[in-house]
Amino acid sequence: MRYVIYGAGAVGGVIGGCLAHHGHDVALLARGEHLDALRARGLELQTPELTVTLPIPAAADPAALPVSDGDVVILATKSQDTLGAVEQVAAVAPDVPIVCAQNGVDNERVALRRLPRVYGMSVFLPATHLAPGVVQANGAPAIGILDLGCYPEGTDDLCDRIAADLTTAGFSSRPDPAIMRHKYAKLLLNLANAIEAAGGDAARQSDLVARAQAEAHRCFEAAGIDVAPPEEAQKRREGVLGLRPVNGQRRQGGSSWQSLARGTGRIETDYLNGEIVLLGRLHGIPTPVNEMLQRVANRLAREQQPPGSLTTDQLLAELSS
Fold this sequence. Notes:
321 residues; N-(1-d-carboxylethyl)-l-norvaline Dehydrogenase, domain 2; 2 domains; seven-stranded mixed beta sheet; four-stranded mixed beta sheet; 44% helix
């Protein structure tokens, strides 16, 4: 069974690199300078224990590999790229199983419109991708936690096999028949991504995080959404996932921070804080903090501003404007 990693950036690159390093058949889908580097030099995977360069096949789109129904696609793009990725995959392999290893809760629904076998994955994977051809993973003792289940619910034999393969590759992975309740719990944590990207650690330590999460809880309650409680996720991580330096360097920031640092011009906030804004509008719940964070993050990305461009006071001023 071949794993096709669609979106070989921080998360996808680490997953694909670890699987390949442990003997699994892997192919990568990437773009731009990152793809050029993968083709020219291979994928450089850096962890607290090792640095290794892996000659993994890489292509720009599924047709170039090509992807077949006998593969497993692990979708690790940002959520704003999900629709285009799913359309490309479905065009060449309409029955291929696809695993949404992404933040947010909309990707699985998008994929299920075009592909019949969709799996959700709850990703706790402290990874970084800032330079073409290079990915870092700071997780230890497990590289990351990658639980998965069928969408919208249940598990099957493929879940068991994928979880086993990921476990042999250094991750902690379990089949979970109610995976979406954990993805909603992860969404709560990801509401802080825009705060960190815009205002750095100081803003992340402010009460903006709690205020954004309080709005989300009210929206989840109004929508009748089942969310795993924080203590459940905390227990899952205890003794399994911590942070260690890579090549003497601590991890600098999360996925949204990295989007601003790379100057991509785009950011995932519409599917994180924007998910709460959407639920609020559907159910009549005010979400001023998440609306502000969505607006500010998109503006910073569009203007290619660096992470940490705003102070906490400036973010609060944006809230009152």
